[in-house]
Structure formats: C-alpha cells, structure tokens
Amino acid sequence: MGTVSRRTFLKLVAAGTAAAMWQGNAAVPAMASATPYRLKDTKVSPSVCIYCGVGCGLLVYAKDGKVINVEGDPDNPNNEGGLCGKGASAYEVYASPKRLQKILYRAPGSDQWEEKEWSWAIPEIAKRIKKTRDANFTIKDGEVIANRANALGHLGGASHDTDECYLLSKLARSLGIVNIEHQARI
Length: 186
Ligand code: SF4
Prior knowledge:
This protein has 186 residues and is an alpha+beta fold. The protein contains 5 helices and 9 strands; from the N terminus they run H-E-E-E-H-H-E-E-H-E-E-E-H-E. The strands form 4 sheets. A 3-stranded antiparallel β-sheet has the order 1-2-3. The protein has a two-stranded antiparallel ribbon with strand order 4-5. Strands 6-7 form a two-stranded antiparallel ribbon. The structure holds iron/sulfur cluster. Iron/sulfur cluster binds next to helix 2.
C-alpha cells in the first residue's frame, strides 16, 4: 500500500468534505419561502379586555368570520401591548377544545360526573338555593335585624367578566348572602 503525502491527504479531505456538504444540501429540499405569516389577510379590530377595570386594549384578529388570535394592543396606553395571565387567555376562552360545553353534575356521594341540560340544572339550582335559604335564614341577630343567609356562599371565577360579576353580586346580596368571594382578585 503506497503512502499518501500530506498535500494529497489534505486534498482528499477537502474533496470529501465538499462532497458531503453537497450531498447534505441536496438531501434537504430548499425552502421555497419563510413560514407564511399567520395573521396575513386577517381583519383586526381593537377591543378592550372584559375582565377588570384596568381596561387593557386588545387586538382581535378574525379570518373567514372566525377569531384566530387575540393579543395586547401596543397602542393602548393602559397596557402598551402587555396582558396579565387572565387577559392573555382571552382567545382560549373563545376557542379552547378543553372548554366545557355541557353541564357536568356530580350527585352528593357519587364519584361520577353526569352530563345535564340547562332545563334540568336551572330549576334544580333554584330549588336547592331556596331550600337552604329557607332552612337557615337569620332574620334577627339579637335585637338587630340581620336578614342574612348564613348557609349560602357565592364564589366567582376567572372567566366572569366585570358585568357578570356586578349582576352576580347583586343576585347574591338580594338573597341575603354575605359570604361572597372571587377566585381571581387582581
Ligand atoms: S384582566 Fe388583565 S388584561 Fe384584562 S384588563 Fe385586567 S389587567 Fe388588563
């Protein structure tokens, strides 16, 4: 076996590297273009986050009659494009496949959830509220008129908007509920 000079060895390495690079390039198809801009041809509408009194500005992008993206409005002086976790989830509230579409009911003592209709749930909730209120209502606390429904409580949730919270707190107070709380204080 003949010896290979240093110069010949370097030429062979260079040729091999060039061939490998050429093959590598040939194996990867050239990208025709960059990834298409997903907000291209959308209609953008400025809006305001519904969730709290900060009033952050939103940009809502729609295509073919459907919302496809919601993000903070950089021109709004309240938030300058930023959103808190709640506002940033605005699109998910609209589009998430995990969003519950049906009422789920778990009977007392059961470990199973059952799907129910609104026509069953609303009268059932009203019936149970009335029964609990009637059985526990405090008209007087000593000599002081109380009109208090001690056995009931009301808990708001993060997807309630400002108007819904206003109406729900009015409803709760009209029933005499004093245990009113919200899970998403800001
Ligand atoms: S919930 Fe968050 S994003 Fe919405 S207005 Fe309030 S602070 Fe802004």
